[in-house]
Amino acid sequence: MPKRTRNESPQKQAMREMMKDYLKNNDVKVKDGADVNSVMRDMMSVLLEGVLDEELNEELGYSKYDYRNKNTDNSRNGHSSKTMHTTYGDMD
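The structure corresponding to this sequence follows.
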């Protein structure tokens, strides 16, 4: 029987490959729902951090270390820990 191909977008294919590589290269074993939830929490945490960093870049008009393009009085003035409440649990 020939192998069925998935009708996926290139983005979804890239995410699938990225996950396969992550699981393989980090020796992550997914045996049950708790393992899946743990991997999803880790992914969600990284994703949220990246999204929030990009949101701040957009709001301020310059990236974190690009002071040459800073055309505003508003600035990054420190870092503080924040907790986000998600369906995967609280994330710091």
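DSSP finds two helices and two strands in the chain.
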